[in-house]
Write a structure and sequence with these properties.
Length: 54
């Protein structure tokens, strides 16, 4: 039982917080902004992971 408590009680790594922030930023962009830089919504997870690592 202690394993489950520790599994869910651990703080999230900072990289995951940066990933969520990057994903929110990408979703907040307008369609015109996305078209200007040439990204599609299907690319969001990959781009957010790259942004979180930096």
């Amino acid at each position: 039982m202690g394993f489950y408590t520790e599994l869910f009680a651990r703080p999230r790594p900072q990289e995951q917080a940066r990933y969520r922030a990057a994903l929110a930023l990408l979703h907040a962009m307008s369609n015109a902004d996305r078209a200007d830089i040439g990204i599609k919504p299907a690319d969001f997870p990959r781009i957010a992971r790259e942004m979180a690592i930096r």
